[in-house]
Amino acid sequence: MSVKTARASGVANVEIDYSKCTACGLCADICGGGLVGAIFKENGKMVVDQQRHFGCIGCGQCMAICPENCISVEGRTISKNDTIDFVKERKPSYEEFFSLLSSRRAVRNYLERDVEQEKIDKIIEGVKQAPVGLPPSDVEILVLKGHSKVREFVTDIINAIDHRKWIFGPVIRSFIGLFSKETADLFETYLYPTALFYIRDLKAGKDGLLFNAPLVLYFHASKYADPADAFIAATYAMLTAEALGLATSFAGTSSNFLRHNGKLKRKYNIGKNNRHGIALLIGYPKYEYKRRLHKSLSNVFYY
Ligand SMILES: Cc1cc2nc3c(=O)[nH]c(=O)nc-3n(C[C@H](O)[C@H](O)[C@H](O)COP(=O)(O)O)c2cc1C
Ligand code: SF4
Ligand code: SF4
Question: Residue 158, class by beta-carbon neighbours within 10 Å (0-12 exposed, 13-18 middle, 19+ buried)?
Answer without folding.
Answer: buried
